[in-house]
Amino acid sequence: MADVKEAASKRDAAWQARVDLAAMLRIAVHLDLHEGVDNHFSLLVPGRKDRFLINPHRRHWSEVRASDIVEVDLDGRPVDGKQPPEATALNIHSRMHQNCAHATCILHAHTRFATALSMLEGVRVEPAVQGALKFYGQIAYDDVFGGLVLDSSEGDRGAAALGDRRILFMANHGVTVVGPSIAHAFNDLYYLERVCRAQITAMSSGAPLKRIPQDVAQHTFEQMQADRDDQATHHFAAMKRLLDREGADYAT
Known about the structure:
With 252 residues, the protein is α+β, with helices and mostly antiparallel strands. It has helices at residues 2-30, 87-99, 112-118, 152-162, 182-203, 214-226, 228-245, and strands at 40-44, 51-54, 70-73, 105-109, 139-142, 167-170, 174-179.
């Protein structure tokens, strides 16, 4: 009986992971964090390190349901009989899932303001607004654009650049955010985009940025870390309730 209950619990956790990933895709559309039928979000299958869930190939995120999500092994082979995702998705996500232990959830997106920063020579996210301190010391940069990520070496370079940090800016490309859960990664992607919007707006004035001193920035980062789990959990839950009020069918 215990084995039956354990198997049922695993099935429930696997299905809930699909539901949450589909919800994340819908939320990204709601917040304009998507780009056409491109970009990709992934999540390790609960209890597994060798399989992950990812949005289906060339499907608009506004129509993806939990049952549409594709499960693949680390070589990109679907284990559920569905069409494999695009090669760039696999080369980014599989390599990060394999090489970055903290990357349970990976959100790769071409959001408007983060992507704009990736286009500027030598520009970094600056500690010039309170929200940026949420990411103090947590942002990595891959300053080489090598074309489409069509081989694993590109994915390996990105994973190496990310290291144990939460955010990777990919030069002339976009941004990748990782986290221990969908809620954590979503929360970071959301606030990162707002920080990038604030910085670009301030830079457009032509006046110099007023940077926050390093000791204050570090202290504020630590203050924010203390509340990170609670904020992320409540933020994601609130966005799912918004979808539910709108009658979204993501959980089917």
